[in-house]
Design a protein that fits this description.
16% strand, N-(1-d-carboxylethyl)-l-norvaline Dehydrogenase, domain 2, 18 helices, four-stranded mixed β-sheet, alpha/beta
Length: 368
Amino acid sequence: MNHKTRYTVIGAGHGGKAMAAHLALMGFPTTLYNRTADHIAAIRELGVIDLESNDGSLKGLGRLERVTSNLSEALDTADVVMVVVPSSAHAEVAKNCSNCLKDGQIVVLHPGRTCGAIEFAKVLKENGCAADITISEAETFIYASRSDGPAQARIFRIKEAVPLAALPATRTRLVLDTIHEAYPQFIDGVNVLQTGLNNMGAIFHPALSLLNMGWIESTHGDYQFYIDGVTPSVARVLEALDRERVTVASSLGIRARTGLEWLDLAYNSKGEDLFEAIHNQPGYYGIKAPPTLNHRYLFEDVPMSLVPIAALGQRYGVAVQGMDAMIRLASIVHRTDYWRRGRTLDKLGIDKLSVGELMHYVSEGIIE
């Protein structure tokens, strides 16, 4: 009898619940872990998550093998560990996992944002993890989902192709092969710098929130985020930020997708410029703005996405004034210093590396 891959999902937010329920419905032995026991009390009591999808293709009770707030118990029998928490929690998860991981296990960050796998690997090493594990990250989250209740999840759609890369890239095929039965949608993302620099949320989310902050605060987000919020001038700022991101990637020898290419690839939405392409995307109509500026579009996307992209730019000689302006604005609004709190290159352990050494690290896993 074929061994069914055993999954542990870390994080019981809307994404984690959707993933755990879907894996269980597909017949994979699935454990759901959440650090706060109260948050998963209903799921633990029932033993199932009630899942449905908007198109009706998925409907049923995903029966979980285990629901726990004990991390070593959650990781004990896992083949694959799916980390579905905000990227600002990746370092904490890595620290807490460091004594529990075992040889041969695979960790997938959903998604890594920018340099998530590099941060995860460094924190594990600092905390004495000796297990030979494979760390990988997805470019974006595979589900559009929400939580309908404490033990319910709803999937709006499942993305058709999601790039994924392991650190080092030589192990990407191992990860793809292991999860293929459950997730044929994952494709080779080349390396973790490529997945991290194709992070479109870094460009769209913080700038659209900051450039419309008066509107967000006065209406509590009661306007169309991408339609009303993207005026011609706002779109020009997005284009400048996008150029900086693509140039940072280019300085590392990476061909990143432009915002226009991404809109065409993800949504088949075309236009002469970003203003046109965004307004030509029917899926953006009806999406409301965040109700407050205390939102992951700032407190997660700025330190975990914009800061590492801008830091790579500064290290390798790319002008990133637009990104720096957004990071500084967000820092003022949130009364913090995102440059200090974010994923800087010294925190990632790659601040002394040349371009060649950095690319060798993400390809082969070796820092000379």
